[in-house]
Amino acid sequence: MSEHVRIPVGEGSPEGVNSAYVLPERGVVIDPGPPTDDAWSALRSGIGEAGLEIADVEHIFVTHWHIDHAGLSCRLAERANATVHVHRDDSALIGDYANARERRLKRDGRTLEYWGVPDSIRRRVLERDTPSRMPETFPVESHADGDVVAGVEFVYTPGHTKGHASFRANGRLYLGDVLLPTYTPNVGGSDTRLSDPLESYLQALARIESRFERGEPGHGTEIEIQTAVDDVRRHHRERAEASFRALEAAERPASTPWEVGRELFGEMRGIHAKFGAGEAAAHLERLAELGIVTSTADEPVRFRPAADDYPDVTTLL
Fold first, then answer.
1. Which of 150, 153, 207, 285 has a CA 20 to 30 Å removed from the CA of 83?
2. 140 by DSSP, 3-state: which?
């Protein structure tokens, strides 16, 4: 019996088709996929091809609360009489879905306003954020960094979400969305609970690059961790400088994250408005922590350069 089987699930997204993983000898499924019938069919077939019956699944590990990873966790757990395991900072967004979603929408609305997103765009973002096919409540087990269940270790890797965790098992690291083969994970707009999401994310990268050589991403197939980390760091250094240059070139004395996001990404609609403004905010917040830009205390928040030119941040980002 193979110690590891990847199952492509879902119809794909900008990140690529989701990857669910089965560890047959441990009765484990990682990130079962989005809550669609097609994904459920693919998951069931993949579990069978791995040599298991649904009833053989004992543990379901979810890297983070996003629906394309967590959406089938409760359905699979109910059918298999299995336990769902999530990092404690993301567990309510799965186990107490209805209430946590309501709190999230209110938080997202406040944050978008703080970033300077116009009212009409902010309303459309929230209106299009419709409920997913998840139980209002479902029992889940909450965990912390270093917890081990069925030989699977929680490795805390926040940034993309507050409670994002990767999983170490069988000498492999199952990455979720901390690193992806063809796409840079969004940091800032993908979870509005983090006050300095880019710093959390960069620390997570430093942690896994020192411990692991290769990893299994939540979209696509195996990647070399150091190469991916180097690419992501380069991306964020370039994006941070572009954010600074956008402030520098603006005719206004200070700019909101929304205004900087428009300079970086152009027209932004729907979920891209949230992701784009959030990414700009993440870079501006990190630059403010480093003293490279300053921010205002009013709302919406505005940023301005703190120096005449952009410093060398190779050692800082």
1. 207
2. coil
Residues 6+ apart with CB under 8 A from 48: none
Whether the Cβ atoms of residue 60 and residue 77 lie closer than 8 Å to each other: yes
Measured in degrees and rounded to the nearest 5, phi and psi for residue 62 equal: -120, 125
Question: How many residues in the chain?
Answer: 317
pLDDT in tens, 190-246: 999 999 999 999 999 999 998 999 999 999 999 999 999 999 999 999 999 999 999
Orientation angle between helical segments 271-289 and 119-127, nearest 10 degrees:
120
DSSP category for residue 115: T
* Domains delineated in the chain: 5-99+129-230 (3.60.15.10), 240-305 (1.10.10.10)
Bridge partner residues of 143 (DSSP): 87
> What is the largest distance, in Å, between two alpha-carbon atoms of the chain?
64
pLDDT digits (tens, 9 = 90+) for 29-67: 999 999 999 999 999 999 999 999 999 999 999 999 999
Rounded Cα distance, 206 and 186, in Å:
17
10 pLDDT tier (thresholds 50, 70, 90): confident
CB 275 within 8 A of CB 186: yes
Q: Which amino acid is at 222?
A: E
- Name the token pair of 67: 């629906």
Distance in angstroms between the alpha carbons of the first and the last residue of the chain: 43
Residue 84's closest CA among 72, 99, 74? 74
